[in-house]
Design brief:
It is a single chain. The protein is of the alpha+beta class. The chain has 11 helices and 11 strands. It is globular, with a radius of gyration of 22 Å.
Length: about 325
């Protein structure tokens, strides 16, 4: 029995999100909750600009607050997540009710900020995603400065688990909360257009089955020759119509997205395989090693060879650090 049109749309969206999942895995993200805020009344919390490889997030489980960054202001309510992909400085605040003294208590996994002598009106988790890969940098470049999404029912279920685990704050809470935050990120990125309260981005293309199918094809086969004419033909559109619709659906250009996907894959191969640079170039769609090197440098600011050397040096430093910690543990252990 054949699939209905609705089934085909669901299949194509699922396939698109499978491609997005691959991009997220290449980014090799980690996450941490920095503080849980249980606040009431007026307050102001200033957050400086995040360092390289750090993407702040705020998740509201109960209550309301406002986040301001530059000229943008977002109201965050129950079940809403705000991501700041460029790590911009921002202020979290509430302007109604009395102002209470805020105290900070140590927790087993992360600290808790409370309004002294007041019942909490806001339950807010503040944390960050972190990455040390070029793929992670390119992934977040594809997002607007603020991503504001309302979580769907499965994501809200995870958020409730997160709250319960945070309240328990027992052995392993930090690891469990970090894993839940990772899952919530992907769920927020896959949110439907009516759940997305911010600007368009790559992820909003899932609302457009035709554009989503083209993007899924590019993610599946970055080594193929993806010209604008070929993408338009895949979408069964004229070149001009495809360009307009792609930009409207994703907030970026097809050429920029194609280059970003190819460079994410290239950075991952250069870091985690022993393929020659010529082979890496071929696997991401460049028939000329020099053309690949030029595109790589334009995107990441360094040559493929230097990038590979730096990545290898970073892994050696990490391994040496782990060895030092292991040795220290052995010496400290009772005999």
């Amino acid at each position: 029995m054949g699939r209905t049109t609705g089934d085909r749309i669901i299949f194509r969206r699922d396939r698109f999100m499978d491609g997005v999942s691959r991009l997220v895995r290449m980014a090799r993200l980690g996450s941490d909750v920095d503080v849980r805020c249980l606040l009431a009344g007026q307050f102001t919390l200033d957050n400086p600009r995040a360092g390289p490889g750090v993407v702040p997030f705020h998740l509201v489980l109960d209550g309301w607050c406002t986040v301001a960054s530059g000229a943008s202001t977002v109201a965050l309510g129950p079940g809403q997540l705000l991501l700041l992909p460029q790590g911009a400085a921002h202020r979290v605040m509430a302007s109604s009710g009395p102002r209470h003294r805020i105290i900070e208590e140590a927790g087993g996994s992360f600290p808790i900020r409370r309004s002294a002598d007041a019942k909490p009106e806001l339950d807010l988790f503040c944390g960050h995603y972190h990455f040390d890969s070029a793929a992670g940098e390119l992934l977040f470049r594809l997002l607007p400065p603020m991503v504001h999404a309302t979580l769907d029912t499965p994501a809200l279920t995870l958020a409730d688990v997160l709250r319960g685990e945070a309240c328990m704050d027992g052995p392993g809470t930090g690891a469990i909360v970090a894993a839940l935050c990772d899952a919530l990120l992907v769920m927020a990125l896959r949110s439907r257009p009516d759940q997305r309260l911010g600007a368009t981005a790559l992820w909003t293309a899932m609302a457009d089955e035709v554009i989503g199918r083209v993007i899924a094809d590019v993610i599946d086969r970055p080594d193929e020759q993806w010209t604008l004419d070929r993408m338009a033909a895949t979408a069964a559109m004229s070149r001009a119509t495809f360009i307009r619709r792609f930009t409207a659906s994703t907030g970026t250009t097809a050429a920029r997205l194609l280059t970003s996907i190819r460079m994410m894959r290239a950075a991952d191969l250069l870091t985690h395989s022993d393929h020659s640079i010529a082979r890496v170039a071929d696997e991401v769609g460049y028939r000329s090693e020099s053309a690949f090197a030029q595109a790589f440098r334009a995107t990441l600011g360094t040559s493929p060879a230097r990038f590979r050397r730096d990545a290898a040096a970073g892994r050696r430093e990490d391994a040496a650090g782990e060895h030092r910690w292991s040795s220290a543990d052995e010496h400290a252990a009772p005999r």
